[in-house]
Model the fold of this input.
Amino acid sequence: EIAAALGGLSPGKLHAAELAADALHVALGAAVAGLTAGAGAASVVDGRTLVAMSGGVDSAVAALLVARAGREAVAVTLELWRDEANDAEASCCSAHAVRLARSVAHRMGLAHFTLDLRAAFAAGVVAPFLADHVAGLTPNPCVRCNGDVRLDAMLAFAERLGAAELATGHYARVTGDGLLRTAADPAKDQSYMLAALAPASLAQLRFPLGELDKPQVRELARAAGLPVADKRESQDLCFLAGTAKSAFLARHGGLRERPGAVVDRAGRSVGRHRGQHLFTIGQRKGLGIAGPEPLYVLAKDRESNTVTVGARAELAATEVAVRDAVMHRPAEEVDRVKLRYRSKPLPCRVRSAAGGRLALELGEPVDGAAPGQLACLMRGDAIVGHGVIDSPAR
Done:
């Protein structure tokens, strides 16, 4: 984009031009956000919508649909993480992703801003991710990022721009009474990752893709000639981006290999592991233990550095304890719970609720409720609350 505008550049000069453009866009974003001047909120501009653009097809089509609805779409991209060991092209929040999103936005005729949130992301997402692994938990960094860092930062930026709403490329919907709702396409539904959003934040969010499936989104992108129509999706956590989790934990958290015993329920040693922090409850792959039947991680002990394994049937739990619960509706309305991002919601009821702690009684057994994961509390297809899985009771 830069080279074409200047009639062609050598690789070295192109890199310098890209760095200059990056710096300019970050400076513009900081100025508008009031980070440098402490400016107040702007007056709302009728019809203006801020669109979160990551450089992928979903956010590009979200911007396309906002513009087609007759609104003025303004794009913003967040730089959240920079790590030389990562695959920049696989990350949705790297400097490379920012440049791609900017290029797509400009091709669509949209103004584009960049926000540098690396410090907030490191403190609010990566640090808790590392701390939870030290504590032997299985964290949800994407839930924390959406609930505490990125979306609130973009909503504040929208206010500075005079935009009354923020549109994203998430697959989710909102009910008529202001609750988060699952997407029409269950295969792409991302409501679990958005469950920690505060109602006030949710009220300003728009999800243009909520009624669409992925093939429809790609077809819209192709028909509009968007260059990201067939861009592959990232499967990693954005700050891993091709880096093995074990290597990331060692490099950024000092969590290096700590060999220990793999034991059965009776405490008999059946193998060795490289560190309990590398495993999660319910895990089957990567144990490196041969047996007459598949073995699963049943429990971990941080103090003794042991991993307990057993048959899948031993994982089954019909009760789950939840801490730090936040309810948007009475607990009595909960009739389903989702305990992992890609798992199906399970029928349940709240047996007891006190002081932010819930005891969930499941309508069918769950295999491996991992402490540290989000419990997404539902009423039908609406999210009425959330909490953190504390420990499964049997």
